Amino acid sequence: MRIDKFLSQMGVGSRSEVKLLLKKGKIKLNDTIVKSPKLQINPNSDRLSVDDQLIAYEPYVYLMLHKPKGVISATEDDAHRTIIDLIKEYAHLNLFPVGRLDKDTEGLLLITNDGQFNHQLMSPNHHVPKTYYVETLNPIEDSAIACFKDGVILKEGKLKPAELQILNTKAAYVTITEGKFHQIKRMFHAVNNEVTYLKRIKIADLTLDNNLKLGEYRKLKPEEFSLLGLAFNEDEI
């Protein structure tokens, strides 16, 4: 990888800022000052420092994204903006979404390049709960609580039990442990209602950061891995 690209993606600065640092002799490759932005480096083995501060290479990245409406949960698409288009860094790490949210659904979406992390959270065998805030067209009947708990029947079969917590006549929290196509919308349709707004607010015990505006993201904190039921590996973040 080109040295200017690597340093830019590791947050040192823009390409032009990195070139200026190189020109000033601020950057060392394996303890030797280098000045060419075109220099090819191996991120896994070369040591890079800026003003004698080592720039660590992150082989794996784990991000929390506040997904906005109108953006699809894909890595690339010719017709629509994707969640990867929102990420300004780490392009060399081949990021992908952990699971998906519908185009018109907002909320918590995790982004990574770690396939094992993705499998642990998204495998149907692991039954990781996901909680959504829902607004509906019609009042939510109390009878829907038992219906969701028993398992709504869709054309592909009976769903696993879901928890419905009614907040007011047209708003609720729903927690599910699977991810069928348009599942929550279809569940409400099955009880003669329609979803008008949907936002994922929690995966396992990890809650969407209220400080993140729509389209913003940040790295997961070490302590947040345990909220997902996962061990934090300090060597991989």
TrEMBL record:
The keyword Isomerase applies. InterPro entries: PsdUridine_s_RsuA/RluB/E/F_cat, PsdUridine_synth_cat_dom_sf, PsdUridine_synth_RsuA/RluA, PsdUridine_synth_RsuA/RluB/E/F, PsdUridine_synth_RsuA/RluB_CS, RsuA_PseudoU_synthase, S4_RNA-bd, S4_RNA-bd_sf. It comes from the Bacteria. Residues 1-59 form the RNA-binding S4 domain. CDD domains: PseudoU_synth_RsuA, S4. Keywords: Isomerase, RNA-binding. PROSITE patterns: PSI_RSU (PS01149), S4 (PS50889). Its EC number is 5.4.99.-. It is an enzyme of class 5 (isomerase). PANTHER family: PSEUDOURIDINE SYNTHASE, PSEUDOURIDINE SYNTHASE FAMILY PROTEIN-RELATED. Belongs to the pseudouridine synthase RsuA family. This is Pseudouridine synthase. It comes from Staphylococcus ratti.
